[in-house]
Amino acid sequence: MLLIWTSIIVGIVCVIVLFMNVYPVFGRRPSKEKAQAFSRSSQYVNGKFQNPFPTMMNMGFGSTVGILLEFAKSSPNRRPMTHLAMETPNLAKDMETKVTWFGHSASLLTIDGKALLLDPMFGKAPSPFPWLGKGRYSGGLPFEIGQLPVIDAVVLSHDHYDHLDYGTIMKIKHKVNKFLVPLGVGGHLIRWGVQPEKIEEHDWWDEFTYEGLTLACTPATHFSGRSMTDRGASLWCSWVIKGKQSNIFFSGDSGYSSHFKEIGQKYGPFDLTLMECGQYDDRWSDIHMMPEETVQAHLDVKGKLMLPIHWGAFTLALHDWTDPIERAAKAAHAIKVSILTPKIGQTVHVNAADYPIETWWK
């Protein structure tokens, strides 16, 4: 009997391993040669990328079961009652600096005539099995993929499903000239058919030029992984994007820490910051900011205008879906921080005389 049960367990494990190697959505771990090269990075310790100081995520077995039970309880405010209204975006490439937010962290930034897609997650749901579960709040996108201009660069902050989406990459890769990514993320893209020469991987504090823009891969306090076996196999980051007329900061996913002040001292001030403000919980506050911390991080990097992101598309935490923007707006208004609240698809001109500040979610 013991032999039978052992054989069954081994068989199940083999099936799972085979599935993870065959199913492309999981991506690909960096090769041994790549991993050896990563040892030159200060962030690569004991075979994986780590934050420079301990980050707590209370995700033990008991805590995980408790969170799942909480998610199982119905809550009318975790999602909108109806699909969110969307605006028609301005997708044209011109010399003006403008940004269009598509929900969550996906945005199109046009700067100095270049089009950059930031964490373009355009899929239905952030999951290796997107056909399961509920989809994005807006029900879709305010444009068709074919309407996108040639994308000068896709800029990725890390490899989590709500930021790096297999289906999206497969649809847009023929339109993209370059993928700018943190160390280790290129392996996923190569598995999905992106030519290696189109990929540039960068470590924290790498500064480089691309198509006349100055970019810097900057720190974030987070983690990575797309399966049970690749946590820390790739790096996570934030980004500085500087053109002739504007200086932009994109936070990626991050807990609040001293790196924001370091970035502000080295690269600020910023005309616009795209700052994470959603999907938080006390149990993982080290790797996702609270909305009030989002506003403080904006001040730390010396931002002028703040666009709250990482909300408005998916339910990945237990708070009400409007809590992130309401708390961030309240904190911003209390200390007179200029906060933008565009609708999904609404294009904002960074150097305009006025900005969208409607409370459209109410």
Task: Record the SSE blueprint.
Layout: H1 2-22, H2 32-38, E1 44-45, E2 48-49, H3 61-72, E3 98-101, E4 107-111, E5 114-118, E6 153-155, H4 166-172, E7 179-182, H5 186-191, E8 199-202, E9 206-210, E10 213-218, E11 238-242, E12 247-250, H6 259-267, E13 270-276, H7 291-300, E14 303-309, H8 323-334, E15 338-339, E16 347-349
Parallel strand pairs: 5-6, 6-7, 7-8, 12-13, 13-14, 14-15
Antiparallel strand pairs: 1-2, 3-4, 3-16, 4-5, 9-10, 10-11, 11-12
Protein name: MBL fold metallo-hydrolase
Pfam families: Lactamase_B_2
Domain Metallo-beta-lactamase: 116-311
Describe the structure concisely for a colleague.
The chain contains eight helices and 16 strands.
How would you describe the overall organization of this protein?
This protein is α/β, with parallel strands linked by helices and 362 residues long. The protein has a single domain, classed as Metallo-beta-lactamase, Chain A, CATH 3.60.15. It has helices at 2-22, 32-38, 61-72, 166-172, 186-191, 259-267, 291-300, 323-334, and strands at residues 44-45, 48-49, 98-101, 107-111, 114-118, 153-155, 179-182, 199-202, 206-210, 213-218, 238-242, 247-250, 270-276, 303-309, 338-339, 347-349. The longest helix is centred in the first third of the chain and has 21 residues, at 2-22. The relative contact order is 0.15.
